[in-house]
Fold each of these.
Amino acid sequence: MAEKELAELLFLVGRRLRHGYLERLVPLGLNPGRARALRALAEAERPMRMVRLADELRIVPRSLTPVVDALEEAGLVRREIDPADRRSTLLLITPEGHALAERARDARRQAGEELFAVLTPEQRDRLGELLALVDDQPQAR
């Protein structure tokens, strides 16, 4: 299989996965960007500075502001002044945010299970190993 064909297949499968995930997120009142931010905050061991969350999500901080505004308005996160650096803002996930992050994680898992149901468990394991190998490569610039 030519490299371009493989890249195109991966793109098409990824698009189907994102579409299935989005269909499951909409009833939760989330979009993929808000779900990613919630997941990162839920997995963090302590409150996170906005700048760190932006780095983790690989977006510029100003792009994060409307995401955090929406999450805060929905009662899923709250902002606090960082006592260690009063110029910084910490993001704290609320119990409601944790619960919704778990539901979003389930939605992603369900979308993947549905998409990859055509594969045997062994094929899914092998695909996971191969994708992990590709993902572990340093990114070319």
Amino acid sequence: MKRPRLKEIVINRDWCKGCGLCIHFCPHCVLEEDAEGKAWAAHPERCTCCRLCELQCPELATEIIIEE
């Protein structure tokens, strides 16, 4: 099976509460905290589409979109 390729990392800023779980669980330090304390994709080129950020987000604010 071919490794998925990242198309986009979507973080719904209205839903994000700034808990930092997605940042903590990302194995490649893709996400960082912004000035408002919310997550943002600082290094999307590092993303391996493991989706740990999606799985850990209690607010379902993070979505990994892969290329078809």
Amino acid sequence: MGKGKTVKHLIDKEWCKGCGICIHFCPKNVLEFNKQGKAKAARPEDCIACKLCELRCPDLAIQIIEEPGSRK
């Protein structure tokens, strides 16, 4: 991710059907299944905000928001 930016993953658990497409296409392995079989951002600090998960989700259940701010 760009210097001075943070990434927020908004995942609508009601819309997510747990198909795993977002997990499969993530180049940095940021996403994984939670205990309910839905997508979650397990390693958001590794996200490069490519938005492949957002673009590939057939149910529009994930949104990537880039926010200015310091990365820790």
